[in-house]
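User: Quick sanity check before I run a bigger batch. Here is a single chain. Can you write out its predicted 3D structure?
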Amino acid sequence: MIKSELITKLAEENPHLTQRDIERVVGVILERMIQALEDGGRVELRGFGALSVRSREARAGRNPRTGETVDVQAKHVPFFKSGKELRERLNADDE
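Assistant: Done. Predicted structure follows.
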């Protein structure tokens, strides 16, 4: 599902709201989540999962095409850990 599909689905389920209002709400929610991660915080949505930021050290990598060694700079990357309810629902069909 992409952002526009989410907005469309929410608009269908909430006919009393305009699509523009829903776009604004979704945008604000996502922006606040990004800001929290930028500030070094964590975003936890109970039952769904938690987003946090992890640091990756600088390292030597390889160009897969040429095999040449390249330096990869240190960076911060988002990390998602799924919640228990999400994991259980995804695996419910296996039982």
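The mean pLDDT is 94.

User: Great, the batch can go ahead then.
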